[in-house]
From TrEMBL:
<dbReference type="GO" id="GO:0006402">
    <property type="term" value="P:mRNA catabolic process"/>
</dbReference>
<feature type="region of interest" description="Disordered">
    <location>
        <begin position="195"/>
        <end position="329"/>
    </location>
</feature>
<comment type="similarity">
    <text>Belongs to the alkB family.</text>
</comment>
<dbReference type="InterPro" id="IPR044842">
    <property type="entry name" value="ALKBH9B/ALKBH10B-like"/>
</dbReference>
<feature type="compositionally biased region" description="Basic and acidic residues">
    <location>
        <begin position="264"/>
        <end position="321"/>
    </location>
</feature>
<dbReference type="InterPro" id="IPR027450">
    <property type="entry name" value="AlkB-like"/>
</dbReference>
<dbReference type="Pfam" id="PF13532">
    <property type="entry name" value="2OG-FeII_Oxy_2"/>
</dbReference>
<dbReference type="GO" id="GO:0032451">
    <property type="term" value="F:demethylase activity"/>
</dbReference>
<dbReference type="InterPro" id="IPR005123">
    <property type="entry name" value="Oxoglu/Fe-dep_dioxygenase_dom"/>
</dbReference>
<protein>
    <recommendedName>
        <fullName>Fe2OG dioxygenase domain-containing protein</fullName>
    </recommendedName>
</protein>
<feature type="domain" description="Fe2OG dioxygenase">
    <location>
        <begin position="77"/>
        <end position="174"/>
    </location>
</feature>
<dbReference type="GO" id="GO:0003729">
    <property type="term" value="F:mRNA binding"/>
</dbReference>
<dbReference type="InterPro" id="IPR037151">
    <property type="entry name" value="AlkB-like_sf"/>
</dbReference>
């Protein structure tokens, strides 16, 4: 019924699933990547002799949005992507993304929420199960930006997922590693970031920007806090794709995904402590520490949640109440102006976050600890959570 052409042979891979925790279906656009030397003798990395299918139109829309909204910088415009399709029980084992791809890069999550683990010494604890220093929830529709230590020092993995999940990882190839026949897509050249309006008043704390950490941000570009909608207590059905976010054109037409970070005081307290991944007990735990986050910069945006975040996060993602910690979006499809205001508001936050993060890419500390840290934030700019990686 459609005119979708078949995918070329290497673009689509479906590993043999002989046991839980083995593999996931992947579709690669822009380039194909070898995790190990293949049968034809191609070394690990981008296969330079292979012409893969081009990035589909819809994904290009997402890429443009990632750059326009300053989620990715203009020198990291993705020219490749990998779609990971996880069936229940599928996982991605601990890895550091290849340096054939430049940093930062990002992953957008769909269908169901799961956790991603970050740590310098993630260990295999069983089929599809890993222990790690820190788990970061990936709500549906969220964007996880990986950079700095989060990209190069910490490994990451997605333990066996409880329910079907799809992620799209957008990455720019190192120009020296691109396939020989690769040609830039003119549509992805010269994407102009939206101009950021002046930042609102902020309770920026004194240590802001001094700490040298970073690497990971989760954002939910589809979420807008809307008091009226929130107060109606509507919920987002679990598993609903957040089309309104990075995919949406204007304010999304339906409730959006949960935010992965903190908002209320109570929640701030709760995330200010190390959260043990729900996956098997971590031997790294004792060595981990998480700083108490700063005051939120945008207290007026702080939404209220009906559920303690600690409670929420202590449950496996599939058991988390979908209606808790959910932000609702403007439903007014009629209101173009409102849409623009929202985009501007979003942009203020994104821009702020990006700028801060650009200041703090390298290993270091602002306390006695010498451990590199990963930082986590959401679009709502609630406090960055700093996580010592624990080694
Ligand atoms: O599925 C995810 O969220 C992570 C994917 C990932 O790590 C990768 O594609 O390198
Ligand atoms: Fe990865």
């Amino acid at each position: 019924t459609t005119n979708i052409p078949p995918l070329s042979d290497r673009t689509y891979t479906e590993p043999e699933k002989w046991m839980r925790g083995k593999g996931r279906v992947t579709i690669q656009f822009g380039c194909c990547y070898n995790y190990a030397t293949d049968r034809k003798g191609n070394p690990p990395g981008i296969i330079r002799t292979f012409v893969s299918d081009p990035i589909p139109e819809l994904f290009k829309v997402m890429i443009k949005r990632l750059v326009r909204w300053r989620i990715l910088p203009t020198d990291c415009v993705p020219d490749s992507c990998i779609v990971n399709m996880y069936d229940p029980g599928d996982c991605i084992p601990p890895h550091i993304d290849s340096h054939d791809f430049v940093r930062p890069f990002c992953t957008v999550s769909f269908l169901s929420e799961c956790d991603i683990l970050f740590g310098s010494s993630l260990k295999i604890a069983g089929p599809g199960e890993f222990t790690g220093s820190f788990a970061i929830p990936l709500p549906v529709g969220s964007v996880l930006v990986i950079n700095g230590n989060g990209a190069d020092v910490a490994k990451h993995c997605v333990p066996a997922v409880p329910s079907k999940r799809i992620s799209i990882t957008f990455r720019k190839m190192d120009p020296a590693k691109r396939p020989f026949s690769f040609k830039d897509d003119p549509e992805l050249l010269n994407i102009t970031p939206l101009e950021a309006p002046a930042a609102p008043e902020t309770s920026r704390s004194s240590d802001e920007g001094k700490g040298k950490q970073l690497g990971v941000q989760t954002r939910d570009p589809g979420s807008r806090s809307s008091r009226s909608r929130k107060s109606k207590g509507r919920t987002t059905p679990a598993g609903k794709v957040g089309w309104g976010g990075i995919l949406g054109d204007q304010p999304p037409q339906h409730p959006q995904s949960p935010i992965s970070s903190v908002s209320s005081d109570r929640e701030r307290d709760s995330i200010g402590r190390s959260r043990e991944p729900r996956y098997p007990p971590s031997s790294d735990r004792e060595r981990d520490s998480v700083e108490r986050p700063r005051e939120p910069r945008y207290p007026r945006d702080a939404p209220s949640h009906g559920e303690d975040l600690r409670d929420r996060l202590n449950r496996p993602p599939h058991e988390r109440t979908p209606g808790s910690g959910v932000f609702f979006v403007n439903n007014g499809a009629d209101s173009q102006a409102r849409g623009q205001r929202m985009e501007h508001r979003q942009l203020q936050m994104i821009n702020r976050t990006i700028n801060d993060d650009m200041d703090s890419l390298s290993v270091g500390s602002h306390e006695s600890s010498e451990q590199p840290r990963v930082s986590v934030r959401t679009i709502h700019n609630r406090p960055r959570t700093r996580i010592n990686l624990g080694w």
